[in-house]
């Protein structure tokens, strides 16, 4: 697996973790610097929307949610899952409940159940695009790359101008060994919204790995023009320039 693939895997974990509002995500290597301003803003907007929806839950569901949060903060994952089962029994057809329970199972390492729950959340709310991102992430974490790609393709059919989805598709295609298609997917991501220094850096990483350093340098420079000081682009640019000068 390439370093860029490892970065994509880490990002998938971050996206999975953000689904659970009751406890903070646990950052993993290579580090939080992978998230650029565009990703942070998209994730913050989704978290705010999720919190607003949870605030509209019935009183008993909000109480379950609070108890789950207490259990997680106490480090009692088993209790959080037990309470989540009670929440599910009371509100089995609520998409955000399925999303919330899926995140708990993902944290616990039960990827098949997390995948099933996010699939159910998508059935209940097919336009909630972050549910699809999380489902694709857990499928990829489980090695089900073809299924993850199908999930992202279905997402793009609903959100064809969302750069986040195109970026995920490019990462999956790279992991599948389909780099020409990955480059095309990155081109679509760069043409879509929101503009992202991370996406430009991802393509730069792939171009550098494919022996196209001049194009990689151009992408890193574009990333830095978009977001000055973005660490991923600075590191990629420095290492690629060193390689070119050898």
Throw out a few tags for this protein:
246 residues; mainly alpha; 75% helix; elongated
Helix proportion of residues, in percent? over 70%
The structural class is mainly alpha
Order of helices and strands: HHHHHHHHHHHHH
Distance between the termini: 25 Å
What portion of residues belong to β-strands? under 5%
Count every beta strand, where a strand is a DSSP E run of 2 or more residues: 0
Mean pLDDT, nearest integer? Answer: 87
Report the C-alpha radius of gyration, rounded: 19 Å
Residue windows where pLDDT falls under 50 for at least 5 positions: 16-30
Q: What is the 3D form?
A: elongated
- Tally the helices: 13
Biggest sheet character: none
Explained architecture:
Mean pLDDT is 87; it is low at 16-30. It is built from 13 helices and no strands. Helix 7 runs antiparallel to helix 8. It is mainly α.
Summed up:
By secondary structure, the chain is an all-alpha fold.
Secondary-structure blueprint:
Elements: H1 3-17, H2 37-55, H3 59-73, H4 77-90, H5 95-107, H6 111-124, H7 129-141, H8 145-158, H9 163-175, H10 179-191, H11 197-209, H12 213-226, H13 231-245
């Amino acid at each position: 697996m390439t370093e860029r693939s490892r970065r994509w895997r880490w990002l998938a974990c971050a996206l999975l973790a953000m689904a659970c509002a009751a406890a903070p995500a646990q950052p993993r290597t290579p580090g939080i610097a992978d998230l650029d301003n565009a990703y942070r803003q998209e994730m913050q907007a989704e978290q705010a929307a999720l919190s607003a929806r949870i605030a509209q839950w019935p009183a008993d569901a909000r109480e379950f949610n609070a108890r789950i949060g207490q259990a997680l903060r106490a480090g009692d994952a088993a209790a959080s899952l037990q309470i989540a089962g009670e929440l599910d029994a009371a509100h089995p057809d609520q998409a955000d409940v399925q999303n919330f329970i899926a995140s708990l199972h993902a944290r616990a390492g039960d990827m098949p159940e997390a995948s099933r729950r996010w699939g159910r959340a998508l059935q209940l709310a097919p336009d909630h695009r972050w549910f699809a991102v999380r489902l694709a992430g857990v499928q990829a974490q489980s090695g089900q790359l073809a299924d993850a790609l199908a999930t992202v393709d279905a997402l793009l059919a609903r959100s064809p101008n969302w750069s986040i989805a195109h970026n995920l598709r490019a990462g999956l295609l790279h992991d599948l060994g389909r780099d020409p298609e990955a480059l095309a997917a990155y081109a679509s991501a760069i043409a879509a919204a929101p503009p992202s220094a991370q996406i430009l850096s991802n393509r730069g990483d792939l171009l550098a790995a494919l022996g196209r350093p001049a194009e990689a340098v151009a992408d890193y420079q574009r990333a830095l023009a978009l977001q000055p000081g973005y660490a991923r682009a600075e590191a990629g640019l420095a290492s690629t320039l060193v390689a070119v000068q050898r």
